[in-house]
Design goal:
about 50% helix; alpha+beta; single chain; about 70 residues; two-stranded antiparallel sheet
Length: about 70
């Protein structure tokens, strides 16, 4: 069986970009703070459009924000 997971570096990127808050990031990408919390915590995988908007805020490629992992759990 495979375990698939979307991982992200949002917390690290927020710290390295003037320590912007979850609230500030949410406002810049047009979602609620609760959505950013869920994405950071790995509880929610954003839409492709939202993922690109987040990457644009940080000025980095999508791959620096999000990774998709597949692990064999057997």
């Amino acid at each position: 069986m495979e375990k698939r997971q979307v991982r992200n570096n949002i917390r690290k990127l927020r710290f390295h970009h003037d320590e912007i808050t979850q609230e500030q990031l949410a406002a810049k990408v047009g979602v609620t703070r609760q959505t950013i919390i869920a994405i950071e915590g790995g509880k929610y995988a954003p839409s492709l459009e939202l993922a690109f908007r987040i990457a644009l805020v940080f000025g980095v490629p999508l791959e620096e924000v999000f990774t998709y992992t597949v692990e064999d759990t057997q």
